[in-house]
Each structure stands twice: as C-alpha cells, then as structure tokens.
Amino acid sequence: MDLDLAAFRLNALATLTNGSSSGRSSGSTTDFMTTLLNAQTALISGAGTSSAASGMGSLLGNSTSQLNSVLSQLEASNSAFMKRYNARVEAIGDEAEVLTQLRARMAELGEASDGLGKLDASSSDGDIKAALQDFITRYNAWDSEFDPYFEDGALLDDNQAGEVARFSLRREVGSIFHGAGHGGYALGLTDMGVTFTPDGQLTFDEAAFDSALANNREAGVQTLNNMAKAFGDAAELLSSDGHLLDRRIANAERAVAWAADHQSEVEGEFGAGAVTARLNKALYR
C-alpha cells in the first residue's frame, strides 16, 4: 500500500467522521489531511526528505493523537482483512479437498451400479433384490456423507459443480425414461418400490418390488439394466478430466497455491504494523 492509498483511506475515514451525528467541526481532520497530503506532494515533487519530514513533524506536533487514532483504525482494518483473507483461503482449500472426495466417491458409486447392469431374466429373485439393495445402501451412504456440505451456509452451499453432480445422479435414479419406451416399467424404479425421501435418501418397498418382479419380470430387469447404464455413464462423465467438477477443483487448487506463494507479500501489505511501517518509509525515505 503506497502513500496514495493511505491518503485515500484517510480521506474515506475523514468523510465518515465528518458525517457523524455529533456535528463536530471538520477543521482538525482537514488540517490533518492537508499536512499528510503536503508531505506526499513534497515526496512526489522531489523536494526532498527535509520537506517531507517537516510536513510529518507538523502533523505529529499538532495532531499526534489524531494520527495515532487513524493509524490504529487502519491497522485494525488491515487486521480484519487478513482474518477474512486467511479464512477464505482456508475455505477454498477445504472446498478443493471435499470436491476431490466427492469426485472419487462418485466414480466408485458409478461402478456400484454395474451389478444391476449384469442382471438378466434368468437371475434369481434373491440376486436381483440383493443387487438393488446394495446399490441403494451405497447411494444413501454417499448422499449422507456429502449432504452436510450442501446445507444452507455450509462449505458447498451454492457450489455449482457439486450441485450439478448431486442433481445429475439423483435424476438418473428417479428418471421415468429408464422404463417408459425402453422395455421397462412406465415410471422406472418408482414402479418397483424405489423412491426418494424429502431429504434425498432412497427407500425400498420390498412388497412393491416383489409384486413388480412377479407381474413382469422382464420389464423389471430391463428397468434396472437401463438405470444402471445411465447412472454409470453419468458418474463417469461427471468425474472425468476436464468436466465441470474437475475444473472447479483445479481452480480452487490454483487459488490456494497462489495464496501460499504470495502469503508473505500479502502479510507485508496488510499484516500487523504494515500501515505504519510503509507510511514512515514513504515519508522518511
């Protein structure tokens, strides 16, 4: 932060101070700003250290308490900024970590649907039910693991890449197009007793499933095959290199890497004592 920025911030503080309801005179603040700006002008014009020092000396002689007060406010402002900055960098790092985990689990979940894709009409009722229950269990575990991150105000709230991934997989499970017009039950898995709860968990009605399998075994198995294929393809695409989720992770990792490389510079600009040190350096160089 150079002297121009210091003057700008002091002007802003002066404006706020003069606009208060106390109705006090702005004269002392104006004199304070004039002295500082005169010191800056001396530096810019090349008048030399003595003129700058004289301006600062006048400032210190007449308004020492005011100078200390304003510098204190600037230091406090920097301190608040650094806290927000560090917290944001940490949150971006956490985001990259969680999205990386989400991506890995999503790929695993896509593979978990393979068992449903291998079923055929000759598979036993027990094998068909077991394969479906295994998929439901693994899907619900995945949803439970990451759902807290998407709550209002949580780490991934309004995170487009994460939301798209979750929505896409949920859509594939509940889609009617795995049945209607594709040899399966008209409403897809819904006609086979598989539905979503309001919080996104899958439920399994065994009686409805047994009935559907008994009424039309071929349609039931085809519905499972269709869903498994679509779900697996979606999981593979969403977790692939270059897709939205991958790009979001890469951007977050680059941001964290940049912050790590420039942390000392940021602290030198906004860390404790930076305002006073840089202002003194500019005035007494």
UniProtKB/TrEMBL annotation:
It comes from the Bacteria. This is Flagellar hook-associated protein. Keywords: Cell projection, Cilium, Flagellum. One of its GO terms (biological process) is cell adhesion. One of its GO terms (cellular component) is bacterial-type flagellum.
